[in-house]
## 1
Amino acid sequence: MTHTPGQEFGNLQQYDDLCARLYTDPDLEPGTRELALAMAWAQLRDPTRHTTNDSLMRRVGFLLGRDRMGRWRHSQLFADDAPRYEPPRAVHSGSCVGPRVRPYRARGAPPPPAPTGPLVCGDRAQISVRERSPVTGQIVKVHWYCRRHAKHADTVREHLARAGEPPPPLPNKGGRLPRYFTPKGLAKIYASVRPGWEPPIYGLCADDWPSDGLPVLVPKRPRLSLVVMEASDD
Ligand SMILES: [Zn+2]
């Protein structure tokens, strides 16, 4: 493949433009910016780019190196940018919200003192029922129950099921690189670094995700220079 001085100059201009956008994008995490800059360098400026047989993934890997634990940094950074939904932390544990069970009282025994705390069970919960928004599909509330209150959990679950299956959750993490790089190659990379990852139905790019689950009606942020990525086989 021959590269004319005109093409070389075109690459230079593209690189300069892309760097300017990457440095001024307030939504980029520092690691994502570093990764994007390495991708830009590898594809538009690296002198060996015309002759190498290595994939983009491999070249970016060498540019960013390994972390202290010896792990390739680019893999972790790509995984961080994979567009996905992550439930809030509070989803992972809770205490039972079933009604408080009155302690056993023998006939004729004096009445127990009036309850002071909340009138819920409060035991460590093993059963969770996740309530998802019918609009965004994201988890809006988790109802927790202990085993004694399993029936309450069933009731809540049935009640929620009657409202119908919510849509797949709107992503809330990652999706920044697709602002600058064509999505096809990125999807392949995301899948390779994050086992089980599936592309969201809402698109890879965070700009395309409706904030309230409704279709985006405002014009998308203009994308001036998309770098066409080579397919990665790594
Ligand atoms: Zn309980």
## 2
Amino acid sequence: MAFAGTWTIRVAGDNCRWCDHCRPDETDFGIRVFSGQVSDTYFARRAFVRGYVVVVWRGRHVVEPMDLTVGEAGQFHHETMLVARALRDCFRPAKMNYLTMGNSEPHLHTHVTARYPGDPGDGGPLPATEPPLLDEIQWRRDAAAVRALL
Ligand SMILES: [Zn+2]
């Protein structure tokens, strides 16, 4: 039950790992491939497909995109689209997906995922289970290729 227990405190920003970890180049989740004016993008270590990143809002603690100013929202969307374009140019997928939930991590972030024919969610969403760990060498190579486009 994600919305029980400490949820209200976490929504308020207490112990928010995205606010607290000070924009590192690499985390357990992934490696940073882009730093914008209002976001950082991490290329995920675990993924069902090649080309999965999370664009994380930077600034004050924000949970919902509707709580951004018009200017902030525009910049966040702009930076998300820059990253999406780089993923498309790098991996040539059939489709790009954008997902802003925050149901387990209440800090604004958007998942941007390349999608391919025959991928584990072909025609629908990818599975909600934990994705497999990517090959370390290929993961770092892919991250570098995306970073080079940004
Ligand atoms: Zn936060």
